[in-house]
Amino acid sequence: MVVPAAPAMAFKAYKYKEVLVRDYLLADSYAPYAAVLGGILMCKLAYDFTRIISSFNFKGYASLNNMQKIEWNNRGMSTVHAIFITVMSIYLVFFSGMFSDQLDGPVTVRSSSLSSFTLGVSIGYFITDIAMIYWLYPALGGMEYVIHHMLSLMSTMYAMLSGEAHVYIYMGLITETTTPGINLRWFLDVAGMKNSKAYLVNGVAMVVTWLVARIILFMYLFYHMFVHYDQIKKMNTFGYFLVLIAPCIIFVMNVLWFSKILKGLKKTMAKRHAE
C-alpha cells in the first residue's frame, strides 16, 4: 500500500515532536526547575485571570475590601492548581501503570520525567501560596495552613530532587480534589449566598469528597506503606522519616478539619430546617 506523501510527512513530523518533548524537553536536567518557575507563572496568571473575570462578571467584586479581593484572587489561583494536580495525580497513580506491583523494582524509586515536571509545577504553587500567607499572615490562613504547606512543599521538593516516594507524594496530592469545593463555599459566603441551596449542596459535596480524598485515601496510603515497608526502609534516611511522619501529621489535620466541616454542615442544615 502506498501512503500519500503529505500525510506520511505529517505523521513523521508528529512523531518527531512527540520524541522531542519526551526525550529532550522533559528529559533535560533543568526541566524540573523550569517547571517550578512555570508553576509560579501559572499562579500569577491564574491570580490575574480571576481578578479580571470577577471584576467583569461579579457585580459584588467591586464592593469587596482590599483583603477580601486578595483572598478571592488567591482562591481562584489555588483552584486552578488543584484541578491541574488532581488530574495529573490520578493519572499517574491509577492509570499510568508506573506504580503497578506487576513491574520489577521497588515502587519507592519509580519516577518519570513527567512526574518530576508535574511536581515542579506544584512546588511553584506552594512557594507562591506560602509567600502570600507569610506576607499577609494571618489573613490568608493561620499556623495550621503554614504547617500543612511547609510539609507539602518539603515532601514535594524531596521527591522531585531525589526521585524517591513519587507514589506517596501523588497519593497525598490527590487530596487537592477538595480545594475547589472549599473555595466555592467561601465564594458563596462572601457573595451573600450562605442561605442558598447551592451553599447546602456544596456543603454535602464537600463532606463526601473530603471523606473519600482525605480520609479513605489516606487509609489506603497507610495500607500501601505497610505492604511496601521493606522497600520504604531502604530509602534515604531523611526520605524514610519524611514518608513515615508527614502523612501522619497531615492525616491528623485532615480529621480535625473534617470534624469542623461536619459541624458546619450540621449547623447549616439545622438552620434551613428551622426556616
Structural key phrases:
275 residues; mainly alpha; 10 helices; globular
How would you describe this structure to a colleague?
- The chain is mainly alpha-helical and 275 residues long.
- 78% of the residues lie in helices and 0% in strands.
- The protein has ten helices and no strands.
- The protein has helices at residues 5-25, 31-57, 66-95, 113-135, 143-162, 166-173, 179-190, 197-227, 229-232, 237-274.
- Helix 2 crosses helix 3 (66-95) and helix 3 (66-95) packs antiparallel against helix 4.
- It is globular.
- The termini are far apart.
- 28% of the residues are buried.
- The model is unreliable at 14-26 (pLDDT under 50).
Topology overview:
Elements: H1 5-25, H2 31-57, H3 66-95, H4 113-135, H5 143-162, H6 166-173, H7 179-190, H8 197-227, H9 229-232, H10 237-274
For the sheet with most strands, the description reads:
none
Q: Mean pLDDT, nearest integer?
A: 90
Task: Tell me the fraction of residues in β-strands, as a range.
Answer: under 5%
- As a percent range, the share of helical residues equals over 70%
Tell how many strands the DSSP assignment holds: 0
Radius of gyration: 21 Å
Number of helices: 10
Low-confidence blocks of residues:
14-26
The outline comes out as globular
Structural class: mainly alpha
N- and C-termini, Cα separation: 75 Å
H and E order: HHHHHHHHHH
